[in-house]
Amino acid sequence: MAKQDDYVRVTVRIPADIYASVKDAAGEKSVNAEIVARLSGQQRTLRDEFAMAALTGIADHFSLSESAVTKASQRVVARLCFDYADAMIEAREAQP
Q: How many of the other CB atoms lie within 10 Å of CB of 54?
């Protein structure tokens, strides 16, 4: 952990529903760590979320196991997931 001098303590008031959302998203991390991660750009993007959803579907459909997947096929599947994510974002933006 960084020295205490590297930090500034602030008090912030936020709506209860936003706090609850941040707390849920933090999971095992502290709410403070989640806020710092979001503010520093370390959060997942919508594209990342869509790619993870695509990977879940692909893995479930094809019963992919870690031992059965080569490095080359991992790259192909990763690229495919992000292609699906890009398509989902395009479709989302095209809606009126």
A: 20
Q: Is the whole-model pTM more than 0.70?
A: no
Average pLDDT over residues 13-21: 92
Residue ranges covered by each domain of the chain: 4-39, 46-94
Closest Cα to residue 64, out of 75, 51, 77?
Answer: 77
DSSP assignment string, 29-70: S-HHHHHHHHHTT-SPPHHHHHHHHHHHHHHHHHT--GGG--
Tell me the per-residue pLDDT of 73-82, one tens digit each, with 9 for 90 and over: 888 889 999 9
Q: Which two tokens stand for residue 30?
A: 């502290």
Q: Would you say how long the chain is, in residues?
A: 96
